[in-house]
Design a protein that fits this description.
With 285 residues, the chain is α/β, with parallel strands linked by helices. Helices cover 41% and strands 16% of the residues. The strands form 3 sheets. A 5-stranded parallel sheet has the order 5-4-6-7-10. Strands 2-1-3 form a 3-stranded parallel sheet, sandwiched between helices. It has a two-stranded antiparallel sheet with strand order 8-9. Strand 1, helix 2 and strand 2 form a beta-alpha-beta unit. The chain binds guanine (GUN). The site of guanine has 10 residues, from strand 3 and helix 6.
Length: 285
């Protein structure tokens, strides 16, 4: 039964084509293209891969794409001054700081210097607060991608016992806010959770974002669970794996996202949608 594999790649390509056509029309009518600026600090292989995917998708739909890659020890002020310039740049609609930042950096200070109007990640305190108030201005990218998939597959999640593994600001926390709106019952777990398996075995909907290759296997889940695997891990032999052991759990699931080709492409396309949303607001003014 192939249709229980949630095809994020196909859906993201479909949305990407729609955006591309929209941008063509906007350019024809004399408008400028939407623009995004991405700042990456450090040399992480996986972060570079994420940024490359974002770049390829942006270029494909005709967005302006500006990119900076700084060394780990770059001064915080240099980044903040660049962000201040980008806040004023009329060609740039969205600014994204690729996370995580090196441990020596004050992540919140840097993120908070992005204008909330250009915050494509919903990480600025104002935007995060609006999400918390059930009145989001913008939807965070990975959670938005997951919600899009749930809607496309017409999966009714009302009342589902939902377990989220990982309490990060880009996945665990915001997806809990999004899913609460759909009346899920939520448990957010973290690396200190005792007897994690007791929670995962109760889950109707399991969202895994811990960055540990093949961490969840069939012994951790109940029958007919819906699994969203947010992990992207690179093994020493170059293979990309998720946080869930797909082969092991497959038979027991009612829906599952593969890695690659599940949540990853949806995060990228949600970013493109967010940039377009901000851009359209700009032209409405
Ligand atoms: N690192 C991994 N995913 C993301 C994302 O969606 N946004 C940001 N800013 N950093 C990330």
């Amino acid at each position: 039964m192939l249709n229980k594999i949630i095809d994020g790649k196909k859906i993201s390509e479909h949305i990407q084509n729609k955006i591309k056509n929209k941008i063509k029309k906007k350019i024809k009518s004399g408008k400028r293209p939407p623009g995004i600026a991405i700042i990456l600090i450090g040399n992480s292989y996986s972060a570079k891969i994420y940024v490359k995917k974002k770049k390829n998708a942006c270029k494909n739909v005709g967005y302006i794409f500006k990119y900076w890659n700084f060394k780990n020890h770059v001064k915080e002020n240099k980044i903040i001054n660049l962000i201040k310039k980008l806040n004023k740049n009329k060609q740039i609609d969205g600014i994204l700081i690729q996370l995580p930042l090196p441990v020596n950096m004050n992540t919140n200070k840097i993120l908070n210097s992005i204008s909330y109007k250009k915050d494509v990640d919903c990480l600025h305190p104002y935007n995060a607060g609006c999400l918390f108030q059930k009145n989001p201005r913008i939807h965070p990218c990975t959670p938005k991608g997951i919600i899009t998939l749930l809607k496309r597959y017409k999966i009714n999640i009302k009342g589902l016992n939902t377990v989220i593994i990982g309490d990060s600001n880009i996945v665990g926390r915001p997806i809990s806010m999004e899913l609460l709106k759909y009346k899920c019952t939520i448990t957010i777990t973290n690396k200190h959770t005792k007897n994690l398996i007791n929670y995962t075995k109760q889950a109707d909907l399991l969202i895994v974002a811990i960055g540990k290759s093949n961490f969840i296997n069939k012994n951790w889940i109940k029958k007919n669970v819906i699994i969203f695997d947010v992990g992207i891990n690179k093994l020493s032999n170059g293979t990309i794996t998720g946080d869930v052991n797909f082969k092991s759990v497959y038979e027991k699931t009612s829906y599952i996202t593969p890695v690659p080709g599940g949540v990853g492409p949806m995060t990228v396309i949600s970013l493109l949608e967010n940039v377009l949303y901000i851009y359209e607001k700009y032209y409405k003014k």
